[in-house]
Amino acid sequence: MEIDVLTLFPRIFEGPLDESILKRAQKSGLVAVRVHNLRDFTHDKHRVVDDKPYGGGPGMLMKPEPIFEAVETIRREESCVVLMTPQGAPLTQERAQEFSRKPHLVIICGHYEGVDERVREALVDEEVSIGDYVLTNGALAAAVFVDAVVRLLPGVLGDEQSAGDDSFSSGLLEGPQYTRPPEFRGMQVPEVLLSGNHEAVARWLAKSARQRTKERRPDLLKED
Ligand code: SAM
């Protein structure tokens, strides 16, 4: 997969992209992530990327020209152009799965009051929100989006860390998990997990996942 990110703050990506699983995924060639500064697509002396909104109101809007030039330079036939916006459809595990099957994502990060509406109308294939709250700019949201998508690419997590058991992948939250020691400060690991009885363990894991989902996210449980 290839990902091109368009932002006014390329440095925000340095941390998330240069650590752990995202770093390894790039090193092993499973994903190529390129981060572009939208100011590089301006042509004036001051590299202006924003202007006042028509009709008044506080704040500034991102101008269309640098975004159009950047997207039209970078996108290809098979590209999916994504706008990070709190007005987009919420990012879910299911949507992350769908995006992980796209060969090329071009991600536009907004700033200030957002982007000129013509960007949305003419360039954008998908709008993604990472939740019902407003961030100062789209770079952090895009870093979350990239992480959620890249970890689902085949080979990125490896056998020891499959995404299939994660919360939401099966439609439920994952149940409680334990590691050694079997007793810590008087708190015991459930007996069944130490039993070596694989069937009983599987039953316990399935039951506890359902129980946890019922307690915390009953909305995820389908009507039986
Ligand atoms: N005025 C805009 C509105 O009310 O919809 C919000 C603009 S926000 C301050 C600036 C930028 O941050 C947005 O253009 C978007 O790229 C990004 N952003 C903020 N919250 C987000 C969220 N929940 N999900 C995705 N992107 C978000």
* Main sheet makeup: 5 strands, parallel
CATH class designation of the largest domain? Alpha Beta
The CATH superfamily of the largest domain turns out to be: SPOUT methyltransferase, trefoil knot domain
The name CATH uses for the topology of the largest domain is: Alpha/beta knot
The hetero molecules present are: S-adenosylmethionine
Largest sheet: spatial strand order: 2-1-6-5-7
| Tally of domains | 2
Number of strands: 9
Structural classification:
alpha/beta
CATH architecture of the largest domain: 3-Layer(aba) Sandwich
Number of H/I helices: 7
Helix content: 25-40%
Mean pLDDT: 96
Order of helices and strands: EHHEEEHEHEHEHEEH
Q: What is the first-to-last residue Cα distance?
A: 38 Å
- Measured by DSSP, the beta-strand proportion falls in 15-25%
Kindly list the characteristics that best describe this protein.
2 domains, 31% helix, binds S-adenosylmethionine, 224 residues, alpha/beta, two-stranded antiparallel sheet, 5-stranded parallel sheet, 9 strands, Trp Operon Repressor, Chain A, 19% strand, Alpha/beta knot, elongated
Task: Describe, in plain words, how this protein is organized in 3D.
- The model has no long low-confidence stretch (mean pLDDT 96).
- The chain has 2 domains: 149 residues, Alpha/beta knot, CATH 3.40.1280; 51 residues, tRNA(m1g37)methyltransferase, domain 2 (Trp Operon Repressor, Chain A), CATH 1.10.1270.20.
- The strands form 3 sheets. A 5-stranded parallel β-sheet has the order 2-1-6-5-7.
- Helices cover 31% and strands 19% of the residues.
- It contains 7 helices and 9 strands; from the N terminus they run E-H-H-E-E-E-H-E-H-E-H-E-H-E-E-H.
- Helix 3 runs parallel beside helix 5.
- With 224 residues, it is of the alpha/beta class.
- The site of S-adenosylmethionine has 20 residues, from strand 5 and helix 6.
